[in-house]
Every structure is written in C-alpha cells, then in structure tokens.
Design goal:
This protein is mainly alpha-helical. It is 58% helix and 6% strand. A two-stranded antiparallel sheet has the order 1-2. The longest helix is centred in the N-terminal third of the chain and has 25 residues. The structure holds adenosine-5'-triphosphate. The site of adenosine-5'-triphosphate has 16 residues, from α1, β3 and α2.
Length: 211
C-alpha cells in the first residue's frame, strides 16, 4: 500500500497501452535525485530511516512470498496465514510511511495499526509450539526448502524490526508495528520447525566445529 499511498499526492506520467487505453507509467523519475515521498507528502532523502524500514519490510514480504511458494508445493495449509501476514506487512509499510510528526488526522485514520494482529500471531505461535518436539540444541536454518526459506524470512524480519524500533522510539511509528515484527520472527521460527517436521526433514543442529 505504501507505493499506492505515496503515489496518492502526485500525478504520474501516462502512456498508451496496446489497445490505446491510457495506463499510468510506473516511473515518475521524481526519485532520480535520491529523494522520495512519505505518505504525508514530505520529501526525504532515500537514505532516511523511513525508507530503510520500508525497504526492509518489502524484502521481508518478498522472502515470505518465496517461502510461501515452496510451502505451497508441499501442500502446507499455513500458506493462507502467510498470505495474511503479507497483507499485514502492507499495513506495516503504510504506518512506517506516515511519520506521526507530519501526519494529519486523515492520514492517521488510514494508517493506524492495532494490537489485534499481534494477538493473532501469538495464537498461531502457541498452536504450532504445542505440536513441536522440544528444543534441545541450537537449530540451524535447514530442514528442507520451505523450512530454510522460513528461517531466511525470520532473519529478514529481525532486520526489519531493527529498522523500525528507532522510528518507534522517536515517536514516528506505532509501537504495535514493532511488536508485530517482534512476534512475527517468533512465528516464522516455529513455522520453520513445523514445516521441517511435517515434511519429515532433518533440522540440522549446531555442532562445535573441530579446530
Ligand atoms: N529505495 C527505496 N527503498 C524503500 N522505499 C522507497 C525507495 N524509494 C522510494 N521508496 C518509497 O516507495 C514509494 C514508491 O516508490 P517509487 O519507486 O515510486 O518512488 P520514487 O523513486 O520516489 O519515484 P520514481 O521511481 O517514480 O522516480 C515512494 O513514494 C517511497 O515512499
């Protein structure tokens, strides 16, 4: 949504499609000088922490998309949950793209982020955790393609969280967004283990390398 949201305040270029209908161009070239827009209409450098966090969230959704495709090939039912998570990450992006310092009431109404999805993640985590064998060693990202891709998503999630926390601490993003990402990495961890278990794949564990 942040791409759509950020585009709301400006007119994009228009080209003609093969049937002659007018299709908006994906590029406006307004970002070429290294600045881009927040949903509140501010122009900021692309190196701004807001765009770092937006980019990390985008990478996270992409990683989850890949994990979801691998999982779908194996018939895992949890792909529906992953789809919902990807939708929630769009809302995470919308909240990040709306810094509270320049947000008006109308912006806040459209980009608020509640605690409800955090609680839902907790329910999902608890239900998978109950079914898993207890942890007796450090698990390494492994356990088949679905599982390894979920571990990769978990690591990207933690980076997204690291990017968002300073925004929350500065009062620019909603604390529930950081909570959501924190819980999401736990969800992705138990889901990675669950996928390995369901597929009968071995989870590699840490063994002290011989010197
Ligand atoms: N490199 C980036 N990483 C993360 N978020 C970005 C980046 N560049 C832009 N954004 C955000 O995503 C929105 C959509 O990206 P888009 O590529 O359309 O922006 P732009 O580079 O400013 O414009 P254009 O590509 O048309 O020159 C922007 O309005 C901004 O909020």
């Amino acid at each position: 949504m942040w791409r759509r949201a950020a585009a709301l305040g400006r007119v994009r270029g228009v080209s003609r499609g093969w049937r002659g209908e007018r299709a908006p161009k994906i590029y406006t070239k307004t970002g070429d000088a290294g600045f881009s827009s927040t949903f509140t209409g501010e122009r900021r450098q692309k190196g701004d922490p807001i765009f770092e966090a937006l980019g990390a969230t985008d990478e996270l959704s992409s990683a989850i998309g890949l994990a979801s495709e691998f999982s779908s090939e194996k018939g895992h039912m949890f792909v529906e949950q992953l789809h919902k998570v990807q939708c929630m990450l769009q809302d995470v992006g919308s909240n990040i793209a709306t810094p509270l310092s320049s947000a008006r009431e109308a912006h806040l109404k459209r980009t608020s982020f509640s605690e409800k999805p955090v609680l839902e993640l907790e329910q999902w985590i608890d239900s998978y955790s109950e079914q898993l064998p207890p942890l007796r060693a450090f698990i390494l990202p492994s356990g088949g393609k679905s599982s390894a891709a979920l571990h990769f998503s978990r690591a990207v999630c933690r980076r997204a969280e690291r990017c968002v926390v300073p925004l929350v601490q500065a009062g620019e993003a909603d604390p529930n967004v950081a909570k959501y990402l924190n819980r999401l990495s736990d969800y992705l961890f138990v889901l990675a283990r669950y996928a390995a278990m369901k597929e009968g794949k071995e989870e590699k564990i840490y063994v002290k390398p011989e010197a």
